[in-house]
From TrEMBL, chains A, B:
Gene: kynU
N6-(pyridoxal phosphate)lysine, modified sites: 226
Protein name per UniProt: Kynureninase
Lineage: superkingdom: Bacteria
Keywords: Hydrolase, Pyridine nucleotide biosynthesis, Pyridoxal phosphate
SUPFAM superfamilies assigned to the protein according to its UniProt record, in alphabetical order: PLP-dependent transferases
Residues reported to bind pyridoxal 5'-phosphate: 100-101, 128-131, 171, 200, 203, 225, 255, 281
HAMAP family: Kynureninase
Keyword Cell membrane recorded: no
Quaternary data: Homodimer.
Amino acid sequence: MNTPLGITQLEQFDAQDSLVAKRDAFVLPPNTIYLDGNSLGAMPKVAATRAQDVLATQWSQDLIKSWNSHSWIDLPGTVGEKIARLIGAAPGQVISCDSTSVNLFKVLSSAMLLQQGRKIVVSQAGNFPTDLYMVEGLSSLLGQQNCQLQLVDNNELESALTEHVAVLMLTQVDFRSGRLLDMQRLTQLAHEKGILVIWDLAHSAGALPIELDACNVDFAVGCGYKYLNGGPGAPAFLYVAKRHQADVVQPLSGWMGHKTPFSFDNKYDKAPGIEQYLTGTPAILSMSVLDAALDVFSDVDMSTLRQKSLALSDSFHKLVKQHDALAELTLLTPLSAAERGSQLAYQHPKAYALCQALIKRGVIADFRAPDILRLGFTPLYLRFRDIWHAVEILADIVQSGEYLKAEYAVKHKVT
Amino acid sequence: MNTPLGITQLEQFDAQDSLVAKRDAFVLPPNTIYLDGNSLGAMPKVAATRAQDVLATQWSQDLIKSWNSHSWIDLPGTVGEKIARLIGAAPGQVISCDSTSVNLFKVLSSAMLLQQGRKIVVSQAGNFPTDLYMVEGLSSLLGQQNCQLQLVDNNELESALTEHVAVLMLTQVDFRSGRLLDMQRLTQLAHEKGILVIWDLAHSAGALPIELDACNVDFAVGCGYKYLNGGPGAPAFLYVAKRHQADVVQPLSGWMGHKTPFSFDNKYDKAPGIEQYLTGTPAILSMSVLDAALDVFSDVDMSTLRQKSLALSDSFHKLVKQHDALAELTLLTPLSAAERGSQLAYQHPKAYALCQALIKRGVIADFRAPDILRLGFTPLYLRFRDIWHAVEILADIVQSGEYLKAEYAVKHKVT
């Protein structure tokens, strides 16, 4: 399509958008275009209602009885099954607990213990740091002779998959570039060499259709507070394929993962199913909010969501290309839909200042060191007209030189 | 004192109680005597107010900016320092994160890695199961030849401390019996044999004065949702003595424990201080509530709290002894103040049914398998007159045979 994109057309997209009403399910700040749902999802109204109920009734009034009467004890499984539906997992394979990092340690340990005799963990250079650090952490216990990280570039991924490799650990959508990997193909290639595969779904769960079972994935972990809108630092989740559940060992064997937690045995006897991956007592307030937030997805078709996500980022990029002032923005994200997540990443020498100036104008983007402006597109609460205004503001900031002001030059603590 | 204890005297105790006003800081259910604060602390009013602020302002309105503007990024340290004051730790040694179980895995790993060449972890038989299971979990990675659990009875503890032992891992107050161990003496005896010591403070932090620094403790972990009133499944905490912080390695090396988390380096470079024990993103909502809840302690003198705690449990037991109907209750908790935590545990052949009948009458106690009735005394919100009524109800239940009703015979899921 060579005709320039205009506001009228974007308003038309909104009029045709079957997800448009979902925006009402969220509390959003006024005069803000929020392009950072890939870092912290916006607050669903039901989440606030649930939190209120946990405080006013469950904790304060029913106190300890709530473990039964409000099913706190079942929450990790309840939340897990709601997420399972979004990531193509049949029941009994997903559970919510701990942080993504801690969960990664659990499944990584399980995978390495299954792969005795192989020591290499292959991952992408530039993968989210915690994923790589967890391999280092596991090495400190297993020894470098039993657990060793090998980092490769994306174009070397397939050739790195040899019989020496124990585990392939990948993030489906790269946190920086937004590149989407081919889960089906990479999992299959790894399996052909006897390699177990762990997928980190932090930037894909809730953003696009995922088919863990169909792709024959071994293990996965993911985040509750990005596209799943579970609130800041919401509990994470993990997936372990049914076929592995009898054989795996996971070292964070806490009392909640015991077959009969309330028998208080001295000896650990793991639960037979996915519950064996529970460790300590879950943060009930945060997990309840995540549980409620997931209900926003209950009537959402993930293909429809994906179509809107791609259309939002397509529109954004087309609008960027229409502004000469934005020529200095270099797109890092692949434009092909098969290789693109739900975000766009642009390199720009003054990306940090640009990001700060945008935030000042109510367009919440984020910055990733050293020079990346990152924009997340969350189809549940973003409108096409928001995209138009965001790019208009961006162009204005660049054209006017506003972003060159001294106040935007200093790095803040958290980006 | 041989004169029987009466309600008048208990009301007098209330009149003289300098902590009596603290009860107003909590939301408590009507017609309830809550003797289970050692399982789940009651809700402080400030906790609910803070949760509301996190939802209505921080998350929903300020969104990602809250990491700086509402100091989310500092929360683990802020909370840690508030707890430090309660457990006798100078600044820079306590941090809040994850669950007690996960934190135990971190410090246990650190201790074992420091103690290369020694493989034995000594603990109490009957210690809280998660503590023991975590040693098993670590063994699955280090191998039985490098990490092995040795369980001893309380009276064998001291003789078990030999040069072959790597780590002594104890819970200061036993979750079942309520027995309080001598932290100073056991830590010193262990150190004399080159053993590192880990204390689990789950049933002591917030319940009695603790002096980690003065006792020269190496590592400690503890729970946020019992006597600290942080809400169900609130984040836990850990302590690592300053003298170990440069040398330790902890395997759950997530991005939050990195020296510069936002540089997103491929290589893990641990933070120099206690922050190295952070792993993933903290559950901000749950941790904020804990942060607010700790403010209830800001003007509390821990010796005063301890005196009231002992007086509450003394009164309870005296009243029990005054009732012939309660002769079948056998006290498991040592009566000596030096050996008693903030709870009483009674053995009774029908302890489960007794507990259920009590709950039905508004006295919330709890049951621990196979035959223990457990009563927790939280000086911040319990009155002496509550103790009187609780024992009256208990005696009435036994005398009337009410607890023998069929409805109390079936075990519920969570106790």
